[in-house]
Amino acid sequence: MASLRSVSQHIDEYASLSRQLFGTLETLADDRRAGDHEDPRALVERIVALDRVLQNEVDQIEEHQRWQQRILEVEATIEACDRAAERLVRTLHRAKMTLEDTVDAASQQIADADARAPLDYRDVLAYAKRLAPYTSAPPRFDPANPSHAFEKPFPDEQMMRAGRLGQLEAAAAAAAAEPSAQTATAGGASAAASAALAKSAAAMMQGALASAVGFGMPAGGAGAVSAAGTDAGHAMDDLLDLDLNPDLS
């Protein structure tokens, strides 16, 4: 393959032969003798032969440029592959670090699981029994029939009231209502005492009038009236002794 130096030398030789040919032609055109000038035909033959050499070298240069372009493309491809390989190595490194962290965490979890108490099969069966009603609809379940009996996946109000929190809430409500109930009981006792006192006073007045006019006297005569008055007096004493302000504590 022709080198750059040989091509440059052939071009210089081609230029020199061309100048010699033009000088010879100029001498012949002036009707002067050629003298020491070379024959134009020989110059033309040398120029033609040199032109063939140059043409061959030009073809070689074109081939060289094609190969040079191919080399540049290959170099660009290699550079892109190098960048892709570098990215792949970085990705693999990050994946390796992630896997190492995952393996370490899994190893710790396995160690913790081994350190814990072994799982009892009864606990598993109880959990499965608890979870089984919610994994699928009951057999022959009709969504259009809301009265179909099935267990809800969440507790309703009745279940919550029957639970421990509902019992605590009911106890708190009963404790809050107890002072009001005691106050209402004391008020009822006071009203009953007042009504009994009024009834006894009325009975005493009726007995006094009956003894005075002899009308409405009960069976047994004056002794019965006196006994009735005595009993009424004892009842009034008992009512007066009633504690109208009981201790509410």
From TrEMBL:
Keywords: Activator, Nucleus, Receptor, Transcription, Transcription regulation. GO terms for biological process: regulation of transcription by RNA polymerase II. One of its GO terms (molecular function) is transcription coregulator activity. It holds the Pfam family Med4. PANTHER family: MEDIATOR OF RNA POLYMERASE II TRANSCRIPTION SUBUNIT 4. Component of the Mediator complex. This is Mediator of RNA polymerase II transcription subunit 4.
